[in-house]
Amino acid sequence: MALLIRTWNLFHGNAKPPERRAFLEPMIRLAVADDPDVLCLQEVPVWALARLEEWSGMSAVGAVAQLPRLGPMPMPGRVGAAITSLNHGLFRSAFTGQANAILLRPGSVVLQAQTAVLNGGLFREAQSRWLDLSLVARLAWPKERRIVQAVRTRLPDGRTMLVANLHATSYPADQRLADAELLRAAVFADALAEPADITVLAGDFNIPAARSATLEQLRGDDWAFSPPADEGIDQVLVRGERVRRLERWPRERRVVGGRVLSDHTPVDARAA
Question: Which residues of 225-271 form beta strands (DSSP E)?
Answer without folding.
Answer: 234-239, 243-248, 255-256, 259-261, 267-271
